[in-house]
Amino acid sequence: MDLITLAHGAGGKLTAKLIDNLFKKYLGNEYLFQGDDGAVLSLPTSKIVFSTDSFVVSPRIFPGGDIGKLAVYGTVNDLAVMGAKPLFLSLGLILEEGLMIPELERIIQSIAEAAKITGVKIVTGDTKVVEKGKGDQIYINTSGIGVINAPFIPTGRAAKPGDKILVNGFLGDHGAAILACRENITGDFISDCAPLNDLIELILENFPVHTMRDPSRGGLAATLNEIAKQSRVGIELWEESIPIRPQVKTLCGYLGLDAFALANEGKVVVILPSEVATEVLETMKTHPLGQNAAIIGEVKNEPQGIVYLKNAFGGERIIDMPLGENLPRIC
Amino acid sequence: MDLITLAHGAGGKLTAKLIDNLFKKYLGNEYLFQGDDGAVLSLPTSKIVFSTDSFVVSPRIFPGGDIGKLAVYGTVNDLAVMGAKPLFLSLGLILEEGLMIPELERIIQSIAEAAKITGVKIVTGDTKVVEKGKGDQIYINTSGIGVINAPFIPTGRAAKPGDKILVNGFLGDHGAAILACRENITGDFISDCAPLNDLIELILENFPVHTMRDPSRGGLAATLNEIAKQSRVGIELWEESIPIRPQVKTLCGYLGLDAFALANEGKVVVILPSEVATEVLETMKTHPLGQNAAIIGEVKNEPQGIVYLKNAFGGERIIDMPLGENLPRIC
User: Fold this and answer.
1) Domains along chain B?
2) How do residues B200-210 score in pLDDT, each as one tens digit?
3) Each residue of A73-126: pLDDT tens digit?
4) A50 with B90: Cβ contact below 8 A
5) Which residue of A has its CA nearest to B218?
6) Which ipTM score applies to this complex?
7) Beta carbons of A166 and A40 less than 8 angstroms apart
8) Nearest residue in B to A322, CA atom
9) Where is the PurM-like C-terminal domain (chains A, B) (predicted)?
10) Phi-psi region at A328: left, alpha or beta (left = phi > 0; alpha = psi -120 to 50)
11) Which of A88, A104, A135, B250 has the fewest CB atoms in 10 Å of its CB?
């Protein structure tokens, strides 16, 4: 069996072989073929978004995705929610000695497919190898460059009192799929791992979005708490309106977790003026990734920096920033 | 003692605390303070170089540097050798559970200092935490963006027969320092870890460089073999002209290694027309990082893709692409 050895990361013959046999083969494009220490890029505009994310998800392959797909979509989504068109990604691999090369090949194929789907190019890369017991098969960093053409850029600092809060579908599916895998819990748990750039483009082209963010690690709870603090507003959520699958609710009860703190990898929170909320909702529903979209709450003047949940009976509870101690390596 | 826990990587309260208490404190700038999923950047030009590198060096602290400094200078140097002015870096951290927070703080301070020295800004970042035994305290990815103003861009594909090959000083110092550390060998071994952007700017402003590359992992041997293949030329090296410290030669003999395959972290190989070689050498020597610069060889028509070493007695031997099996985690 072909295994990754320490020499594969030493910059010599075996590194070159990996580059030729895997990276150039599956990811090759005019930039990667330049073969220099970096890629020379001519951007269509000089206003860009630059983002980075490392991926250490365990297990590496899960229902609905794998670490390769996640690494591409994760950074593509981070660029898209900033109002940028994702164009170029870098790929940094940290491999553990003993990783099977066919396994690496499958992950690279998955990266290539995800790049093709989202229209981004992997233009520069790096591979390091660490000794057995100093890693966990594969860790991936992707950094990305997207270009901005939109007149306004959504930011966590721009949510305004009166704005409505929308989400494009069921929350917590990625976190639930990973946890179910790890705990050997059977059931209908599938990660929502998906590229959001197309759906987001559709929204941004037509509506004046104030804030947009993908509630990945830390889930809806972390994302809205960040926004409430950045924008100095209160955020009211409507319990009955938040789409969560029944099996995810059950799993959370079983594991003692809050579904609002579970990670998503194909969801976007959109905050914009109340007047256009219904129209945006209808637009989102026309897209395959927005079929279960919902208006889930409203931005308030007060209490600043606080997210709270209201139910139909008038009950209220604060949704705090999660601590996260039960949710390691979710992405 | 304050330790990194898995919850520090879960995107909740403890992640936010790390961001505020370490990253914003030491690395803070107008872009990082945006606090969104990526940084919005207005570049002075739309022609850029994009590069990525992960750093897994062991030990993390070594004579002449540490993993933080290395992570900044490594990517800055990759951008500089491509003819770009380094402007922006991303910072991706993979921390091992149990890392002492004061240790992380020292590394972040070192990153901040290196960024200041080189005039780059850390504009976006990400932190993940893996379980004890699934990492080695800290792995760092930096990706970087530099802008190109030069009329020509050096590339590994542009070396021409007749060109002279220069290097800015002693080779193998970084590799020797790391290996001496690991093997507990005492002696005067200090990494050459340094930012090359200033020296390179001085050269590029004044001379028509064909090829420029920093011989890091895999050393001079890997770098010149890559260039010989990319440019379809032969490369002749002059043994007596290549600056290597006596103690590094001795260490290589002791460990059975080739000094040409040892990593450098503050060296640049410059290939340009013979007519200007002496003048470039003099210019390099005016710079603190070029005091021991030398002309070490010449590009030949033949044999294509081959690097060979000639000595004063007419002896010749081929310098092959290193395999690298003895040099893991050198950067």
Assistant:
1) 6-148 (3.30.1330.10), 164-318 (3.90.650.10)
2) 999 999 999 99
3) 999 999 999 999 999 999 999 999 999 999 999 999 999 999 999 999 999 999
4) yes
5) A11
6) 0.96
7) no
8) B12
9) 160-309
10) beta
11) B250
